């Protein structure tokens, strides 16, 4: 099963919570915003979704 993490760049404030909490390092900061640069590593745990106060992250099943 594959997962597709996405970040709404308009909502992201660059707090880095998702970068810090992701157990498999899916996210990196790119130009001050979070970006799922290693999306193929996503386990679908949604810890990033829960940690994002701006509700900028979604994780969908591929």
The SS-based structural class is: alpha+beta
Count of alpha/pi helices: 2
Q: Label the overall shape.
A: globular
Q: Which CATH top level class fits?
A: Alpha Beta
For the termini, the CA-CA separation is: 7 Å
User: What is the domain tally?
Assistant: 1
Query: Main β-sheet, in a few words?
Result: 2 strands, antiparallel
Indicate the proportion of strand residues.
Answer: 25-35%
Helix content: 10-25%
The CATH architecture classification is 2-Layer Sandwich
Beta strand count: 4
Strand order of the largest sheet: 1-4
Give unreliable regions as ranges: none
What name does CATH use for the topology?
A: Alpha-Beta Plaits
Radius of gyration: 10 Å
Q: Could you report the average pLDDT, rounded to the nearest whole number? A: 97
Write the H/E string, N to C. EHEEHE
Pick out its properties.
single chain; 62 residues; alpha+beta; Alpha-Beta Plaits; two-stranded antiparallel ribbon; two-stranded antiparallel sheet; 2 helices; 4 strands; 26% strand; globular
Q: How do the strands and helices of this protein lay out in sequence?
A:
Elements: E1 3-7, H1 17-21, E2 28-30, E3 33-35, H2 47-51, E4 57-61
């Amino acid at each position: 099963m594959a997962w597709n993490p996405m970040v709404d760049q308009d909502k992201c404030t660059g707090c880095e919570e998702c970068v810090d909490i992701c157990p498999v390092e899916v996210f990196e900061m790119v130009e001050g915003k979070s970006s799922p640069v290693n999306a193929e590593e996503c386990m679908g745990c949604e810890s990033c979704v829960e940690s994002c106060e701006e509700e900028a992250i979604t994780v969908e099943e591929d």
